[in-house]
Amino acid sequence: MNNANKTKGIIALDADGVLLDYHASYAMAWQKAFGVLPAIKDPLAYWPIDRWDVQRLTGTELERFRQCFDEEFWSTIPALPGALEACHLLKEAGYDLVCVSALKEAYRLSRLKNIRDHGFPIDNVIATEHNDTGISPKTKALSNLKPVAFVDDYLPYFRGVPTDIHMALITREPNGTPNTGVELKNVSSLHSDLLEFAKWWINSPPNIK
């Protein structure tokens, strides 16, 4: 049965680490700033500064690197393997997809262009800038959006999310991961990547739906 025209609710998706390969773009930004594409130091590192063989920057070199995180950067990040297939599976199963990203509003349209250029069936990006409140910067947007599920790869971004939303954590690279500790009990399910989540969700939907 084709459920393409039957809306079952919204699934909110993070971008970097869920849809897009921020690690790869970090290396390309480094090459743009300093003329050298860094080698991989630890393929299992969660943070890009630990994954790539790069030094920690300060002063003018840090500012030079930061300037590379511009509109071009945010509109050209590669898609993660399986992410496009996952989104099409969820869309065909009857879900509307929205990207909820911890990103400056100034780059929201660049992110949307990036996602659309890859062919993701996502027409809306909600940018939620970082805050110092101790809860997820995505909480307000998710409270308003009321998705049936929220998928992210960063455990702290589930803090304060309404408990009636299914919270799916993408675990990905384990070395140096922040996805550990007592807060894991607050998430609803764990998945290796978005495609694994999509297949699980479609075939064994939780009772909340």
Based on the model shown, name its key terms.
2 domains; Rossmann fold; six-stranded parallel sheet; alpha/beta; globular; single chain; 209 residues
Give the mean pLDDT.
94
- CATH class of the largest domain, named Alpha Beta
CATH architecture field of the largest domain? 3-Layer(aba) Sandwich
CATH homologous superfamily caption of the largest domain = HAD superfamily/HAD-like
Summarize the biggest pleated sheet.
Answer: 6 strands, parallel
Topology diagram in text:
Layout: E1 9-13, H1 22-34, H2 48-51, H3 59-66, H4 71-74, H5 83-92, E2 95-101, H6 108-117, E3 125-127, H7 139-145, E4 149-152, E5 166-170, E6 189-191, H8 194-203
Parallel strand pairs: 1-2, 1-4, 2-3, 4-5, 5-6
Helix pairs in contact: 5-8
Describe the structure.
The chain is of the alpha/beta class and 209 residues long. The protein has 2 domains: 9-20 and 79-203, 3-Layer(aba) Sandwich (Rossmann fold), CATH 3.40.50; 23-74, no CATH class. It contains 8 helices and 6 strands; from the N terminus they run E-H-H-H-H-H-E-H-E-H-E-E-E-H. The chain has helices at 22-34, 48-51, 59-66, 71-74, 83-92, 108-117, 139-145, 194-203; strands spanning 9-13, 95-101, 125-127, 149-152, 166-170, 189-191. The protein has a 6-stranded parallel sheet with strand order 3-2-1-4-5-6, with helices on both faces. Helix 5 runs parallel beside helix 8. The chain starts with 8 loop residues before the first strand and ends in a 6-residue tail after the last helix. The model has no long low-confidence stretch (mean pLDDT 94).
